[in-house]
Amino acid sequence: MSQVLVVVELVEGTVGKPTLELLTLARRIGDPVAVVLGEVPEAAAEWLGRYGASRVLAVTDPALGQYLVAPKAEALAQVAGSLGPAAVLLTSTAEGKEVAARLAVKLGCGLITDAVDVHADASTTQSVFAGAYTVRASVTHGAPVITVKPNAVAPEPAPETATVETVQVTISDAARAARIVDVQPKQASGRPELTEAAVVVSGGRGTGGDFAPVEQLADSLGAAVGASRAAVDSGWYPHAYQVGQTGKAVSPQLYIAAGISGAIQHRAGMQTSKAIVAVNKDAEAPIFALADLGVVGDLHAVLPAVADEVARRRS
Ligand SMILES: Cc1cc2nc3c(=O)[nH]c(=O)nc-3n(C[C@H](O)[C@H](O)[C@H](O)COP(=O)(O)OP(=O)(O)OC[C@H]3O[C@@H](n4cnc5c(N)ncnc54)[C@H](O)[C@@H]3O)c2cc1C
């Protein structure tokens, strides 16, 4: 059976959910081989095995952590070169996409970014032009290098015993041009990462600057908080949380838009969400056209009521 290279994202030593999703998708094409750019903690190897990776390749060259993306692309190109995989899957993060692009150039293979599904023939589904079109795409040259948006699929276990193998690579001087001189960890909010969260609650201009109901509902659901550009430009929420064309693209199982009109630039960042709920006091707001469930009402009354009901049912 053909092998599919899955590039692993470790978050503080643990395997991130998007990687488990990649392993699930990779199994449709062939045997997943996980590649970790760094040391592989024992627990991480176990998780990778649990989701179908029988081989885990550990690339531990110190340059990988000291420089920007170039050494990662070089290392992956060497691993892929010796493995000859049927496809390479990465997560659609900013770094994942940059590494994927460089890797595709090095391998002389086609690249597909931001897939929302991957099929057994390594073709993909993508949502393009601000979600106005859904396309099926396949690479015509070489093994496809594919980045997949988080939440594309529910991770499904397929237990294997993972064997960890250390792989040596050679990192060129050219790839060491941009060294990382300082790293500041992001302040933990206790909420999931916006682009990976299964549930996102976003607030817009309709919050009037009061994000407390948005955060309260998000916390009752274990969700991430997002914001429209109008809310961000007003200084009500940091830009890192902006959803949309000039913000982050999210694709959660559930997206709750509160006090957001549904401008095309906002939709561009959330239209591939599996279910969309809109809370807006204007029954004519465009967001209702794409909502699976619409609530016409004042978010300052609706959101706390929903949060209270969620808490009541959980207790
Ligand atoms: C090049 C470009 C890039 C852009 N990129 C982005 C982007 O990345 N992300 C983004 O979001 N926008 C982006 N925009 C801006 C976008 O066009 C809209 O202006 C913006 O999304 C509007 O934000 P909003 O829906 O919060 O505000 P509004 O459009 O003002 O809508 C506010 C909504 O809140 C409702 N409301 C008011 N009070 C309440 C209440 N108490 N309870 C319930 N509902 C209430 C109103 O009925 C209204 O529908 C971009 C624009 C441009 C030109």
Low-confidence stretches: none
Count of helical stretches: 9
β-strand number: 16
- Report, as a whole number of angstroms, the end-to-end distance: 48 Å
Envelope shape: elongated
Give a list of the ligands.
flavin-adenine dinucleotide
> Helical content, roughly?
25-40%
Strand content: 15-25%
Structural class by helix and strand composition = alpha/beta
Output the radius of gyration: 21 Å
Q: What would you note in describing this structure?
A:
- This protein is of the alpha/beta class and 315 residues long.
- Helix content is 28%, strand content 24%.
- The protein is built from nine helices and 16 strands.
- The protein has helices at 17-29, 42-50, 63-66, 70-83, 94-107, 212-221, 229-233, 264-267, 299-314, and strands spanning 3-7, 10-11, 14-15, 31-37, 55-59, 87-91, 111-118, 124-128, 133-137, 145-148, 163-167, 199-203, 224-227, 254-258, 275-280, 293-296.
- The strands form three sheets. Strands 9-8-7-10-6-1-4-5-11 form a nine-stranded mixed β-sheet, sandwiched between helices. The protein has a five-stranded parallel β-sheet with strand order 13-12-14-15-16.
- Helix 2 links the parallel strand 4 and strand 5.
- Helix 4 (70-83) crosses helix 5 and helix 6 (212-221) runs parallel beside helix 9 (299-314).
- The relative contact order is 0.12.
- The model has no long low-confidence stretch (mean pLDDT 95).
- The structure holds flavin-adenine dinucleotide (FAD).
- Residues 204-206, 228-231, 242-247, 259-261, 263, 265-266, 269, 279-282, 285, 298-300 line the site of flavin-adenine dinucleotide.
